[in-house]
Amino acid sequence: MEHLHSVSSNGVRTADISVFDQNTNQWKLKVKRDGITPQETTLFLESWTESRIIVEVDIAYKNRIISQTRRNIWKGTTPSGIKVEGYIALNTTVFPLQ
Question: pTM value?
Answer without folding.
Answer: 0.81
